[in-house]
Amino acid sequence: MNAASTNPFDAQTLKRQFPGLADPRLHYLDNAATAQMPAVVLDALRRFEIEARANVHEGAHFRARAATEAYGKARAQAARFLNACSSEEIVFTYGATSSINLVAHCFGEELKPGDEILLSILEHHSNLTPWQSLAERHGVALRFLPMTPEGRLDLDSLGTQLTNRCRLVALTHCSNVTGAMTDAPSIVAAARVVGAKVFLDGAQRAPHGPLDVRELGVDFYAFSGHKSYGPTGIGVLWGRAELLAALPPFMTGGQMIEEVTLSRHLSSAAATLRSGHPADRRGDWSRRGPRLDANA
C-alpha cells in the first residue's frame, strides 16, 4: 500500500490554512488569476510591517537593518526556489507583466530592424503586447509558433519559424488557456542553434512548486507573487547574471545611483545588481537630493 492511499488528501485541513476561504459559502476557483494567501504569508506581512518597516539598503537604524535582512532573505529564498546560481540573479519587479516589459525594453534596446522574436499563438497578452510595442519602436519582426489540435505548441514548426534572424524566443512555460506545459529543453536546444536567447513566462507554472532554471537552460524566467500565494504588486524576474549586467537601465533612481547633480547622474552596474536591478523598486523608494553644485 503506497503513501497516497494511507494518507488521503484532506481538503478541509488545507483550506483552514487560508483565512480568506473561511466563508462556507465561498467556492474559490480563480487561482489561475489570483491565489488566496495562507496564514503564514499574512503573518509574515504583518510582522514585517510592525517590526521592520523601513527603507531597504538605506538606513543604519535597527528597523532599516531588519528590513534589509528580510529583503536579502527573500531574494535568497527566491533563488533557491528557482535553483539560481546566485541571489543576485533575482530581480524583484511589480509582477510577471512588469518583468516581461523590463526585458522587452532593456534586452530589446539593442535589437535592430529585421531582427526577430519568436512567440506563440498561445501567449497571454502580457507576453504579446510588450513585444508588439518593441516591434513598433525598433522594426523588429514577430513570428509565431502555431498550436497542435491538442492545444500544445507545434514544435514541428520550429524549423520554419525559428530563423537565423531570431534574437529571442519568448514563450509561456504553462499555458493559461490550455494548461499545456512547454517542452523547454527542445525550445532551448533549437534556439541555441541560431544563437537566440530564451525567455519563459512562468506565471502559471511557478505556483505548482519549485523550478530549476539551470536544468531548463533558459536565459530569463518570470512569475508573479499574487498567483503564487503571495501579495499583489510583486513579481520575480530571474536572468543569467552576465545578461542582467549587460542590460541598460529600465528605470533610474534609488540604489542604482552613485552620484547625481542637477545636470547628470552616474549609475553603477555593480550597485544595480546588488539591489536587484533598476526595476527592483520594492522597499527602495529613497531619493538622494541633487548636489547644488554651481558647476553642475
General description of the model:
Among the domains are: 83-246, 3-Layer(aba) Sandwich (Aspartate Aminotransferase, domain 2); 249-281, no CATH class. The protein has helices spanning 3-6, 11-15, 39-51, 62-82, 96-106, 129-138, 158-161, 184-194, 213-216, 241-246, 269-275, and strands at residues 90-93, 116-120, 141-145, 166-172, 197-201, 220-224, 235-239, 257-260, 265-267. The strands form two sheets. The protein has a seven-stranded mixed β-sheet, sandwiched between helices. A two-stranded antiparallel ribbon has the order 8-9. It has 296 residues and is an alpha/beta fold. The longest helix is centred in the N-terminal third of the chain and has 21 residues, at 62-82. The chain is 32% helix and 15% strand.
Mean pLDDT: 87
Low-pLDDT runs of 5+ residues are 270-296
The largest β sheet comes out as: 7 strands, mixed
Series of secondary-structure elements, N-terminal to C-terminal:
HHHHEHEHEHEHEHEEHEEH
Put simply, the count of helices is 11
Provide the CATH architecture of one domain: 3-Layer(aba) Sandwich
Shape: globular
